[in-house]
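Structural prep section.
Before we set up the soaks we want a predicted structure of the protein with (2S)-2-hydroxybutanedioic acid in place, mainly to decide which crystallisation condition to try first. Input record follows.
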Amino acid sequence: MRKLVLAAASVVAIAFAGPAAADDPIVIKFSHVVATNTPKGQAAEKFKELAEKYTNGKVKVEVYPNSQLYKDKEELEALQLGAVQMLAPSNAKFGPIGVKEFEVFDLPYILPDLATLRKVTDGPLGTKLLKLLEPKGMIGLAYWDNGFKQMSANKKLIEPADYKGLKFRIQSSKVLEAQFRNLGAIPQVMAFSEVYQALQTGVVDGQENTWSNIYTQKMHEVQKYITTTNHGYIGYIVVVNKKFWDGLPPDIREQCEKAMKEATAYGNGQSQKENDDALAEIKKTGKSEIIALTPEQDAAMRKAMEPVYKDVAKRVGQGLIDEFVKETKGATN
Ligand code: LMR
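Run finished without errors. Recording the tokens verbatim:
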């Protein structure tokens, strides 16, 4: 399967590398897996608008949402091959290409809020982590937010014992695998585009995601209960093919960097609202019951997931976890 994807991607890459006239715009194909009306979808549209404006049309950004071109893992391979130029995969999805350090963002309850997250992404650790992408043929341009994850299933999820024996779809992160194993559940890695159907047909029993992803994928229509856990974070690394980016005329690259900076501020400035709006929409449909945990129930969930930190230290290193936690407590500047 992997070979097939790669072969298809190289055919696409060759097709797009055909001769270009001098005044043809430079095309940036931006592929992603979520809907347009999500924090990532909106930030990608903003980048398109600004990059095209600042370069006076010398750059054309083609945004392909909803896994139209590639699913989760394939899109990273396609980027490395140059079949697309830009992506924004979640932190959880870089392990399979050999950059497991971003999984530290998946640790349960490591981030109390978005302001704390910003201290990490805007600080030295954020910069250091982006550098790990360069040997993989990509440059990390920005951190984009989605928000905090909630748990859903057709069974009420109130205490850790409720998770026992249930199958949960996860992104391809070993931290998330450890998280569900510690709850006695069975984690199953699956592409985002396949989650709705897997829930509908009972291939998996539950999943974790942000309100905006749950709403735009209609997961609430096939999950009777969603528990407000806010136990983990989903955010993205905007990555660009290094060869492509380094090969851009410097003035064009500068304009695109400016567009990225502004699109990032825009997207991150409204991610919270988009998730709040999605929650309100889900409530309106009345299709899922939204469950709130008491402080005691919340504490029991935190306790059940604590051993994940030990499991993960073996994978990403205790040093990285300590550095991350230290920066969450540090000053913003
Ligand atoms: C997921 O796979 O659940 C998310 O990473 C999808 C996304 O890009 O928000």
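Observations: Residues 1-7, 11-18 have pLDDT under 50 and may be disordered.
Flagged for discussion at group meeting.
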